[in-house]
Write a structure and sequence with these properties.
This protein is an all-alpha fold and 162 residues long. Helix 1 runs parallel beside helix 3, helix 1 crosses helix 4 and helix 3 packs antiparallel against helix 4. The protein is elongated, with a radius of gyration of 17 Å.
Length: 162
Amino acid sequence: MKTLKEIFGYLLGGILFVCLIPSIMWIASGRPELIPTDMLRLVIGAVLAVVGLVISVWSIVYMRRKGNGNPMDAFGHEVAPRTKHLMTDGPYRLSRNPMLTGTFVYLIGICTWLWTWQALAVFIIFVLIMLVQVRTEESRLRRDFGEEYEAYCSRTGRFLPF
C-alpha cells in the first residue's frame, strides 16, 4: 500500500507540475505555435525548463534516498509518506524548497517560450497558491522539528540560497 501511495504521489506531482500547469499556460495564451520563430527565446526557455526539472528531480531523488520519504504534502494533508528527519543537506542546503524552486525555474522557462501575458498570469497565480502551501508546510515543520527547523530557516533561504 505504501509503494502504491508513493507512486500515486509522484505521478500526481509530475502530471500537475510538468504537464498540467504548462498546458494551462499554453491554452490561456491562445495556443501559440509550439516552435516560435524567435529561436533565442525558444533556447532560453528550453534551458530554463531543463535546469528547473533537474533541480526538482535532484531534490526529489535526494529526499527519497536520504530522507526515506517524499515531499508529497498538500496543504497539510499527507499524500505519500513524509521524511522522518529534517532535510538540510544536498539541494536542501541551498534552499528550504528546492523542488519548488526548480518548478518555478521550469515554469519561467515555459513563460519565456510562450512569451504571453496569459502564461505569466497563470505562473503568478501558481506562485501565490504555492506560497500558501509553503506557509502551511513551514508551520508543520516548525511543529515537527522545532528549534532545529528555526536554525535551518536562519541559515537557508526559502527559495534562494540567500
